[in-house]
Every structure is written in C-alpha cells, then in structure tokens.
Amino acid sequence: MVLFFVLFMADYLLTYIGLNAGYIIEANPFMQNFMSLGLVPGTILRTLIAIVICSLFNYIKKNDVKAYKKLIGFIVMVLVLVMGLHSYWIYQVSIS
Predict the structure, then answer these.
(1) Taking the domains of the chain in order of start, what are their residue ranges?
(2) 8 A C-beta contact, residue 11 and residue 75
C-alpha cells in the first residue's frame, strides 16, 4: 500500500514537472484540468484521492486477499510504466 502511495504521488510530481517545463503533454482530459490547479492544491487533492483509493484497497483486501494482490500488482506495474515514460521524456528533453 505504501508503494502504491509513493508511486501515485511520484507520478503526479513527474507529470507536473514535465508539463510545466514543457517536456511532456497530458493526453488525459481529466488530468489536464487537474494539472491546472497548481502544485500545492493539486498535491493536496492527489493525496486525498490516494487516501480514498487506499481505503478501497483495504476494503478489497479484507474481502478477497487474492484479488487484492492481483489488483495492487497490476496498478503498481502501470504506475511504474507511466513514471518510467515520463522520466524518459523529461531526461530526453533535458539532454537535448
């Protein structure tokens, strides 16, 4: 659960940095609006969203540990992939 939270917040921060530096663009319309909030309000909102998601994970974990493990594994893999892409794009632009 801690790993999910750290990755979820790191994804937000990397996206925020990449967007504000002009290194990346956000394709998700919901996230485009979310990113326009600013760093502090966006971080607070993202933290609240993470808490809600973690609460849902805890509910799933109490009722079906096997499903929880599959779900959290999948979500962590997706977050790592997305963060890797954002990091790569930021790195590529910063060295050119």
Answers:
(1) 2-95
(2) no
With a threshold of 0.85, does the pTM exceed it? no
pLDDT in tens, 20-76: 888 778 888 888 888 889 899 999 999 999 999 999 999 999 999 999 999 989 998
80 with 7: CB under 8 angstroms?
yes
CA atoms of 54 and 48, how far apart (whole Å):
10
Token representation of residue 36: 């326009």
Distances in Å between the Cα of 60 and the Cα atoms of 8, 20, 55 are 19, 36, 9
- Give the torsion sign (CA, 8, 10, 13, 16): negative
CA distance 55 to 60: 9
